[in-house]
Design brief:
With about 300 residues, this protein is mainly α. It is built from 16 helices and two strands. The chain is globular and about 70 Å long. The two termini are about 30 Å apart.
Length: about 300
């Protein structure tokens, strides 16, 4: 029972990390020492498991996946999602205090970049090459995605697929991907209000992403760890301007729901109260990530 509670607590930490754009649930799994176990548990839903299901061999089908590890972890993760949609409503705060919330997100991402760079060991020509690829890819992604994305089932499914794939990567947050796709507040509101027309296709996309990407990322990190890590860092760098807190945002109301139609970054021309508060939020986000990575390093030693 104690082990289950510990796993549920670790799941809550992962869920809390991925609710906030800029903090990676994969990074939190690394810190908590369960990343390899998490990938192995996801990969346990394999062809052998499907064969047992098709043959109606329920006992081996239930024994093969690591349910003892996954169930308490998922319960903790789901509790974190409810907490940050019902108790601390981040989707609402994004509209009421966008500068402060985006300032926190910006600091979290800067902290992730600073903390991940030493993992590359050295900054040589090859490192700059892979960083450049990642930066261009990140810039391309944020410019490819329109300001207003559809709420169609196929796009919600795609959002779930990409978000869970990013969550498995150390350094990239699934919520950060949802923010780029303009679906962060949509999904969190759906979780908080149990909107199953959104949650079901999103969950199906997540399941598909787990099956495919857990195998892909395991292979990439085993074979090309440094190159993969540098591309991840580059994506974070290339995507930073989307999270820049000082933006001129314009909204219109469509079917009773506010839609962001334009967002233009600008540099503040005065050191006023808002600017100071945003800078403080950036420093808080930066400090939180660096503290997490410091503990991660101590755990590794």
């Amino acid at each position: 029972m104690k082990n289950k509670l510990i796993l549920a607590a670790k799941g809550f930490c992962m869920g809390a990390a991925d609710v906030v754009p800029g903090v990676s649930g994969g990074t939190m799994a690394f810190i908590l020492g369960i990343y390899a176990q998490l990938l192995a548990a996801i990969r346990s839903f394999d062809v052998v498991w499907l064969r047992h299901l098709f043959k109606l061999e329920f006992k081996p089908a239930l024994q093969r996946p690591h349910f003892g590890f996954l169930i308490p972890l998922v319960i903790g993760l789901f509790c974190a999602l409810l907490f940050f949609t019902r108790v601390i409503p981040l989707p609402v705060l994004l509209h009421t205090h966008p500068e402060l919330i985006y300032g926190l997100f910006f600091g979290l991402i800067i902290g992730s970049i600073i903390a991940l760079l030493p993992e590359a060991k050295r900054l040589d020509i090859s490192a700059l090459f892979f960083l450049s690829i990642g930066t261009l890819l990140g810039w391309f992604i944020v410019n490819l995605v329109p300001v207003n994305t559809p709420d169609n089932i196929w796009f919600i499914f795609l959002s779930g697929f990409l978000a869970i794939s990013a969550m498995l990567l150390p350094g990239i947050s699934g919520s950060f991907i949802l923010l780029i796709l303009r679906k962060y507040d949509t999904i969190l509101n759906a979780i908080g209000h149990f909107q199953f027309t959104i949650l079901i296709p999103f969950a199906l996309g997540m399941i598909t992403g787990l099956i495919i990407f857990s195998r892909l990322i395991g292979w990439l990190l085993t074979r090309f760890y440094r190159a993969t890590l540098l591309i991840i860092i580059g994506i974070l760098i290339g995507s930073l301007w989307v999270i820049w807190p000082f933006q001129l945002r314009q909204y219109i109301e469509v079917h009773g729901k506010e839609r962001l139609i334009s967002s233009t970054p600008y540099w503040p021309d005065a050191l006023n109260e808002t600017t100071i508060h945003v800078l403080l939020m950036m420093l808080i986000g930066l400090g939180l990530v660096l503290i997490i990575y410091t503990f991660a390093k101590k755990n590794e030693q």
